Amino acid sequence: MHTTISAxxxxxxxxxxxxxxxxxxxxxxxxxNKIVARVSLSQQIMxxxxxxRPTFAWKVSTGDRAHVTPxxxxxxxxxxxxxxxxxxxxxxxxxxVFFSGGYAVHAxxxxxRLGQPASHGCVRLHPDNAADFYQLxxxxxxxxxxxVIVK
Length: 151
Description:
alpha+beta, 3 helices, globular
């Protein structure tokens, strides 16, 4: 999906959830106001559900043979619109959503490598998709976001 179309979808979803909070009370909207990003290491794909509904499926690149991507369920710990890796020669990491120490979901410019392990352990996305994911987490909040990484 193009960023503008995705951004509209995100904004419509956020507005619908705000309306649900008004109509049914904050507890009903809070329960529905969740993002789950499920990353499959074996399939090299990230599926994003918003309020329990499958919304996006994107190719990713995770850790290569020499670099592991941690598995488990995580919450975002910090976000940066642009981050430069202190460990890997100031490598750019646009739209970074950190979830465990130095591991993040972020954009990559090596888009031809998406769909295969290629990173130092981070979850890399196409720049458009990383921007969409970043906006989703920013809109719904890190507390309402889960990043689940499975083999």
